[in-house]
Design a protein that fits this description.
The protein is α/β, with parallel strands linked by helices. It has one domain: Spore Coat Polysaccharide Biosynthesis Protein SpsA, Chain A. The protein is built from seven helices and twelve strands. The strands form three sheets. Strands 1, 4, 5, 6, 7, 10, 11 and 12 form an eight-stranded mixed sheet that branches. The protein has a two-stranded antiparallel ribbon with strand order 2-3. It is globular and about 55 Å long. Bound molecules: cytidine-5'-triphosphate and magnesium ion. Cytidine-5'-triphosphate (CTP) binds next to helix 3.
Length: about 250
């Protein structure tokens, strides 16, 4: 598609790429993290529903564990999902970055805005998804949902052996720091270029776009968009779901 005929961010349809190919080492032994159940439903299904709940999102691409694409396809078939949303499943890679790139490779040409959302953030509210989409549609090449920090953060000289004391090097001013979540939203061309250009390992997609020198903006994130990383996070996720069942009959 030529640049002239490409729809503007305000008009273009929105797709979501959900990397779900990680093992979940920090969660402990068991099935791949995205396939573990929360309140009886796989974490991945919660995440897919959370993104498909946005009326902006018309396609969800799930990046499955490399040998688990067939299993993920049948999971999607077995769970009720909105009919106005299309779904694709592709196998993932060794790193999150590679998994996201494999998802982008499967993106049909008409989608000009892309959200990238961790399957490990199953409880993100639709309001957060919509806020990210709206900021991209307003012209930002990259948007991250972000929250202020509760803890003071120290930069250290990491010790060679885990558990050894580590010299503190600096204390960034907490009021200027944010913890960033997903979905992160992008102008498709900017994200694709970032994935073609940036080769070093990164922990989020927006930092790759930053490295291109493009502006990344933060919008308010949400406490319930936390990442399920360690066993205690499963307890918190179950508590959030129990509260939702009480308050909205979810
Ligand atoms: N991810 C992926 N492909 C990989 C690694 C991670 O798609 N090779 C996905 C995970 O499935 C998850 C998201 O990236 O939805 C965020 O990663 P993280 O929370 O680190 O999950 P895991 O890598 O699975 O967990 P761990 O680092 O504890 O092994
Ligand atoms: Mg990981």
């Amino acid at each position: 598609m030529s640049d002239e005929s490409r729809p503007t961010p305000a008009q273009t349809p929105v797709a979501a790429v959900i990397p779900a190919a990680g093992r979940g080492v920090r969660l402990g032994p068991g099935a791949p993290k995205a396939l573990r159940a929360l309140s009886g439903t796989p974490m991945l299904i919660h995440a897919v529903r959370a993104l498909a709940a946005s009326r902006h999102v018309s396609l969800v691409i799930v990046v499955a564990p490399p040998d688990g694409a067939a299993e993920v396809k049948s999971l999607l078939d077995a769970h009720a999902l909105p009919e106005r949303t299309d779904f694709l499943v592709v196998p993932g890679g060794e790193s999150r970055q590679e998994s996201v790139r494999l998802g982008l490779d499967a993106l049909p040409p008409q989608y000009g805005v892309v959200l990238v959302h961790d399957a490990a953030r199953p409880l993100v509210p639709v309001e957060t998804v919509d806020a990210v989409v709206e900021a991209v549609r307003d012209g930002a090449p990259a948007v991250v949902p972000a929250l202020p920090l509760a803890d003071t953060v120290k930069e250290v000289e990491p010790a060679a052996a885990a558990g050894d004391p580590e010299p503190v090097v600096a204390t960034p001013e907490r009021a200027r720091l944010r913890a960033v979540q997903t979905p992160q939203g992008f102008d498709r061309a900017a994200l694709v270029r970032a994935h073609e250009t940036v080769t070093e390992n990164v922990t989020d997609d927006a930092s790759m776009v930053e490295q291109l020198g493009l502006t990344v903006v933060a919008v308010p994130g949400h406490e319930e968009a936390f990442k399920v990383t360690r066993p205690l996070d499963l307890v918190l996720a179950e508590a959030v779901l129990a509260r939702r069942r009480l308050t909205d009959g979810f």
